Amino acid sequence: MKRYYVKGMSCAACSARVEKAVNGVKGVEKCNVDLLSNTLSVDGTQTEEALSVAIKKAGYELVLDNGNDNNEDQQSMQIKSTLKRLISSIAILLVLMYFAMGYNMAGLPLPKFFEDTPIFIALVQMTCALAVMFINRQFFIRGIKGAIKGAPNMDTLVALGSGASFIYSAYITVVLAVKNDAMLLHELYYESAAMILTLISVGKLLEARAKSKTTDAIKGLKSLKAQSAIILVDGIETEVPIDQVKVGDVFIVRPGESIPVDGIVLNGFSCVDQSALTGESVPVDKAVGDEVYSATVNQTGYIECRAEKVGEDTALARIIDAVSKAAASKAPIARIADKVSGVFVPVVLAIALVSVIVWLLLDKSIGYALERGIAVLVISCPCALGLATPVAITVGNGIGAKNGILFKNAEALEAVGKINVAVFDKTGTITVGEPKVVDVVAVDGVTSDELLSVAYSVEKFSSHPLATAICDHAQKMNAQSIEATDFETLTGSGVTAVTQSGRVYCGRVSFIKTLVEVDQNALDTCSQMASQGKTPMLIAREDKLLGIIAVADELKPDAKLAISQLKHMGIHTVMLTGDNNGTAKYVAKNVGVDEFYAEVMPEDKAKTVTQLKSRGSVAMIGDGINDAPALSAADIGIAVGSGTHIAIDAADVVLMKNNVTDAVRAVRLSKLVLTNIKENLFWAFLYNVIGIPLAAGVFISILGWKMSPMLGALAMSLSSFCVVTNALRLNLMNIDEKGKPISSSKNDPTVQSITLHVEGMMCEHCEARVRNALLAVKGIGGAVADHKSGTVTYSVTGKVSQGKVFKAIKKAGYTPKE
Length: 818
Hints:
Blueprint: E1 2-7, H1 12-23, E2 28-34, E3 39-44, H2 48-57, E4 61-63, H3 68-103, H4 112-116, H5 118-135, H6 137-148, H7 154-179, H8 190-214, H9 216-223, E5 228-233, E6 236-241, E7 250-253, E8 262-268, E9 270-273, H10 275-278, E10 284-286, E11 291-292, E12 297-298, E13 303-309, H11 315-328, H12 335-361, H13 366-379, H14 382-402, E14 405-407, H15 410-416, E15 421-425, H16 426-430, E16 436-442, H17 448-459, H18 465-476, E17 485-490, E18 494-499, E19 502-507, H19 509-512, H20 520-531, E20 534-541, E21 544-552, H21 559-568, E22 572-576, H22 581-591, E23 595-597, H23 602-612, E24 618-622, H24 628-633, E25 636-640, H25 645-650, E26 653-655, H26 661-696, H27 700-703, H28 709-728, E27 752-759, H29 764-775, E28 780-786, E29 791-796, H30 802-811, E30 815-817
Parallel strand pairs: 15-22, 15-24, 22-23, 24-25, 25-26
Antiparallel strand pairs: 1-3, 1-4, 2-3, 5-6, 5-7, 7-13, 8-11, 8-13, 9-10, 9-12, 14-26, 16-21, 17-18, 18-19, 19-20, 20-21, 27-29, 27-30, 28-29
């Protein structure tokens, strides 16, 4: 989608008008108008010239050479301009109020000249009101333009309210000049004309300042960009601007410096703080061959890296782009407000006119009736309706980005909180994704070395995680690789290749059984392995079974906790895997999923997800690459543990850290944002439902309540500010349950949280060593270390002796205390 800045939009009626105009342009497939940033996002084959013409006809201006920085400049200019207008307006208003209220009502003194000639008092008020109206003339310009174009907006209401007050007062001034009756001074409404504009400007300033804070997360991400990089050419260090770094350049990073672009470590070792990018507070070790990302901070060592991604291709740039697009998109819940906003202003104009007519019919004076109509015009606020959703979406996206959770659009942010079923892929999501060979069982007449050598010769052509595990083990055991040809991957079943001794097959039990005879002892061994959570793979050559190689993958420390949390929220949990039923059953039992599907072919995962939709909204949680069809088939696709371009493109939500618990945080964040949007919409509707009748005088005869135009203007100026401020309140909320670390899992009776004092921790690197040492202990599901307090809190999901915990901490180089 292309994004542009639209000048002149002031309320929800404006954004509805712009959206309608753009949708009428030939070639436009989809468009979103964001009132919060005054931006237009368009997808289609339309030309910029056609867009510009359509928006100009609607009464607005399209800025073609737009970027996100341009939007921020426009916001900054708007705040400065509004502040200048407000200061000037207040200075003049003080003089006006002295003549209008101070003299007429409070009896404050005036020079005798004015007391003898009341017409001059009226003329001073008129001059002051005219000055304030000139200073705030954009309300009249935009309001009249909108009315002429057949699209009245909030500015039209303000202009009519202020203008009507001034015109009526001007009429009274003429009568005063003729009759020279000082009592007519009480019929003047010049102060209302000026006060309305001044108070609306106050509201606009507060709103603009609050709106600018909603994009603090995006601004923070942009501020992380390095301005320069040190390039190494022929051993000579040269500092160059960041935009001159090219793919393939070798750059160096010293301790304390930011990494300028994405790259691969060529030389050196260090710890890198990736918290700004992924939200992960613990520094990550980087050695030769590891990836590093721009905007992360090198902490301890000197490293040399080769640039792999630069400019708009870096992970940081993609994250900024994803967050910006999500903020500019429109959530389904906003459609109610959009429909109301489209007819809001005409309805308010009608109510104001009816109010004036009704009070005139009730024998009230023109001034009294006009006051009621003006109050209706200035208290009505379509802005609050228009801002109710986008401000919450923008703040929510910012919170997500800070915690390593990226929402592709506003629809995804809304939908995650409404899921009924969470479907997990097993490998790489529930498990670590780094399987290792644990058993090598050869049949009679075949040695383990021969079995491993045959398997290695075939699996070395495959990139499957199980194949990688076999190859790593074979290399570790110094197994010989036999020459093989005609390699073929049999999707979901195994692999095959031809060696000098014949065709070899490696794969799942059900597949090999169709090719060779597998005796009962081998089948029993496979069943036993599967019941222990291992994945047995049979190796056969021609028509003979050679043996079994079992591979196992560790469960992620936080998998059980995440699933427990989702179940506590009432979400049905399901595991999908291509693994055998025994292994799937073992894993499912250990992590506590409600249901599992085993031996599911990759192409069938999407079908299973589609079938599960009958139970409600379904989220598929996988690695974002191998599970792409299932991610697309689900209502919401969540990619875990990857900030790669493929993951960002494949899923609706990307979890930058390799933590399953972030899926739970995403659900909680979505629920908080949804609640905030509902609060905003409730306030916006309630404000108008109560405020408009109150201004029209409906409650005067019942309760004696009457509202002046000035109070109406004050209420209107604060309504949008309240909505934006309520959205900013999201920043104070913790997306961990009840403000506690999610790993403590208070709601899971099988999880126990224990805190120990640990001596010797001096920095975040120490925290990482203690945490990793504990996570290596079987039965510990999560750990959080804090060097400042000298404590570590870990959650136990099984039977773990304190001796094992103490031993692990001591082995890491630290001293545990009771």
